[in-house]
Amino acid sequence: MGTEDMVRLDGGTFRMGSQEFYPEEGPVHEHTVAAFAIDRHAVTNADFAAFVADTGYVTVAERDIDPNDFPGAVEDLAPGGLVFTPTAGPVDLNDWRQWWRWVPGASWRAPEGPGSTVEGRSRHPVVQVAFEDAVSYATWVGKRLPTEAEFEYAAQGGRDDQRFAWGDDPYPGGVPRANTWLGRFPYERVGDHGGRTAPVGSYPPNSYGLVDMIGNVWEWTSGVYTARHAADGRGPSHDPTTGGATCCGGGAPPISPVAALRTIKGGSFLCTPEYCFRFRPAARSPQSEDTATVNIGFRCAR
């Protein structure tokens, strides 16, 4: 994805965070970002395939696993990723193990595991990419990952006084404005995309012309995760958190209990008011850097 697919934003001071929904989103504070450019859409399978073809890059999900990263493991660990699997009916929404499973062989080429493919999905966001994979791609194209603040600023589309990127109603006029979960989670898949990724740009852009800043896939940022924003907006509220993230309704459970945590933003096709009300600009979630799942992707900034 070249510079022609980027949108340049002037930057400015905005109200970051929320105190309405989840504690990690607070406190609300003024934050200033300098001018920057950001990709119009998430990096696609076609974009990532070009990177791999040019460099021979092997993603984290495709590499052999170091058993030292998984103390106490009782069986051999094969390379793979986390795959969402709908349940047959209602389940305890506090137990992510009901719908997430580790699938050996899952990778960006086979997002749902062996037998799956990205054929016909060239315009879908690439998934099953860990933080290192996103950074490596960004470096290849001469860009970087956006900061958490840059992502939130861009997702707001110039409006920091509303809950969603499009207003205060999650479904204005009963119409979804982003690719999020419709129906009862995690078993009733409704809508055009039915609990899967959609081609980038399937939903209307925000006022900056950016698509899918909300929904479709969670996106990596460069931000080291902290449990709260700093009240003055100048930095972390405490030392960076390490150790396994909990699946708090955000992206996915951690893979390694020893990896550092990064902040992901934007929500995904698995977000829904009854489970993960995080398809909002202020929403944020922790993910271990080695996490590769079917609902985390990324876009670049400069």
TrEMBL record:
Every Sulfatase-modifying factor enzyme-like domain range: 4-302
InterPro entries the UniProt entry points to: CTDL_fold (IPR016187), Sulfatase_Mod_Factor_Kinase (IPR051043), SUMF_dom (IPR005532), SUMF_sf (IPR042095)
Gene Ontology MF terms in the entry: formylglycine-generating oxidase activity
Name of this chain's protein: Formylglycine-generating enzyme required for sulfatase activity
Organism of provenance: Janibacter cremeus
